[in-house]
Design brief:
about 525 residues, Rossmann fold, six-stranded mixed sheet, 17 strands, globular
Length: about 525
């Protein structure tokens, strides 16, 4: 892969970024591209901060025990999402701050006043679909964008899975009708425009997105502003995005706060924290520090480990690039020898390179949050990153071990597209990853919607999701939805970075997470 990832970029207003096409594709697949293109001041924090009340939901005592939905010992067959118990929740409740909304008085697809719910019309249920357009890459010098990931190909793959829904009875006899909106990740104005096209113009019932690309205000355009359920393959959202989105933000993955909390418990289990001084690098992006407070710092405190030093990088990538040497100096002076990397992949890479230049090599630990635990996320790391640990729920790098079998759920998604239109890509390809992620979000929408038939409203949709129970999604660990639990993944595995293959090697298989 190209070294373009290491270049500094500006990301404000109408902006573009100089990425090579292959790197852009990789960042897209890993759900990392748009978080990089968000643009800030500088804050330096030393010492740990007490977690707020939101951290109470991350207490492992409230996590499911053996045999609970999502447990390796749970009975039944994974993947369908049966009527399993909703007791227990490993994630913070979306009800915090008064964001919970219910509609018990509403019935079927009608609101209390008798009108049909937004997005449900005579021709069917209108589903908003966000399509990423990488043509902006061409505008900055890379002709043709990214071959095979153009909007037309993405729509073709989505159409396969919508046809699958409609060929199997639709949603209670109604057709699921996709309404597409294209956005350019190098131009944030198009991201809000796509939201408004789907919410204000198409007036869709629900929105789907398969790359984890929408964050912050563009995400909240759907959830907070328009009360539109938003279903994503990923769920790396921070506590601010979670809280402000209320019950409308739904994902197969693991929220950022749960991800960093589980990283702390896993590192402790493996003996990586005993007698160590712990540090954190993080971003000033709204909600990020609070996420670390509630998830990572609170968990470390419960384990008896204080945080020796924290460095908060500017959200502006150009500014953050100048801060790397300062961060290295601060953390090295504090004696930090275990460092949790909880900021974007570009800033993390710049920090590790700066640290290597100062002969500073702490034990690096990361999670799913910003995608550093993916092969693409860490591809520009220097040799000093060798041996870094990632504790993740996402199934990235599945084929770094020769002979590893294709997961059955992923295979089914791939073969469904192959049978429908002949598309068949290498298992390691970006196209195959996007097909599988597309399959995941469309099938999750159908599963929730079909469970919502007695109350087919947006609020009913959010309520029905909480009753799904166990799910076994593509490209993600098994998990479950339950009351107050909107991010499903309930298992985690460990990976170790290998400089030999420039990739993450799976070192432990999936097992139940602590929170």
């Amino acid at each position: 892969m190209s070294s373009e990832l290491g270049r500094t970029l500006t990301a404000r207003g109408k902006r573009s970024a100089p990425f090579a096409a292959g790197v852009v594709a990789g960042l897209l697949v890993a759900g990392l591209l748009v978080p990089l293109l968000r643009g800030g001041g500088t804050t330096v924090v030393t010492g740990g901060a007490a977690a707020g009340a939101i951290g109470a939901g991350l207490d492992p005592s409230s996590a499911p025990g053996q045999g609970a939905p999502g447990s390796a010992d749970a009975g039944g067959t994974a993947g369908a999402g049966g009527n399993t118990s909703t007791a227990g929740s490993g994630s913070q409740s979306r009800a915090a701050g008064g964001t919970e909304r219910t509609s018990a008085a509403e019935s079927r697809s009608q609101k209390a006043g008798g009108a049909l719910e937004t997005g449900i019309r005579a021709d069917g249920i209108h589903v908003g679909v966000l399509i990423i357009d990488l043509g902006g890459v061409s505008k900055v010098g890379f002709s043709g964008g990214v071959n095979g990931l153009d909007p037309a190909s993405q729509e073709r793959w989505y159409n396969v899975f919508f046809k699958e829904i409609n060929d199997t009875g639709g949603i209670g006899g109604r057709k699921a009708i996709p309404d597409y909106a294209v956005y350019d990740p190098t131009n944030t104005e198009t991201q809000r425009a796509a939201c408004l096209k789907l919410t204000d113009e198409a007036k869709v019932f629900v929105a789907l997105e398969n790359t984890g690309g929408y964050r912050g205000p563009d995400l909240r355009c759907f959830t907070e502003e328009h009360h539109t359920p938003y279903v994503s393959e990923f769920d790396r959202y921070n506590v601010d995005e979670v809280r402000r989105s209320g019950p409308y933000l739904i994902g197969y993955g693991m929220s950022a706060a749960r991800g960093v909390a589980n990283a702390a418990y896993e590192a402790e289990r493996l003996g990586k924290l005993k007698g160590k001084k712990i540090g954190i690098i993080e971003s000033e992006r709204p909600g990020d520090k609070e996420t670390d407070d509630a998830g990572l710092v609170a968990s470390l405190q419960k384990l008896g480990h204080p945080v020796a030093s924290r460095y908060v990088f500017s959200e502006d990538l150009n500014t953050a690039a100048t801060q790397a040497p300062l961060a290295v100096h601060q953390l090295q002076a504090a004696g930090v020898d275990v460092l949790f990397a909880n900021t974007n992949v570009l800033t993390s890479t710049q920090f590790v390179n700066a640290a290597a230049g100062q002969v500073y090599r702490p034990q690096y630990i990361t999670s799913d949050w910003y995608g550093l635990g993916t092969d693409f996320g860490a591809q520009e790391m220097p040799a000093s990153f060798d041996g870094a640990l990632a504790f993740v729920a996402e199934r990235d790098g599945e084929y770094n071990t020769p002979g590893r079998a294709e997961p059955a759920v992923d295979k089914n998604c791939r073969e469904t597209v192959q049978k429908a239109n002949g598309d068949n890509f290498d298992l390691k390809s970006n196209q195959n990853a996007v097909i599988v992620q597309t399959c995941g979000v469309v099938r999750l929408f159908a599963q929730i919607a079909r469970a919502t038939l007695s109350n087919l409203t947006r609020d009913g949709f959010a309520m029905a999701m909480q009753r799904l129970g166990r799910v076994d999604p593509p490209r993600m660990a098994p998990g479950y939805f339950a009351s107050g639990r909107y991010d499903a993944a309930s298992q985690i595995r460990s990976k170790t970075w290998s400089v030999g293959c420039t990739c993450w090697k799976i070192t432990e298989e999936f097992h139940d997470s602590r929170v």
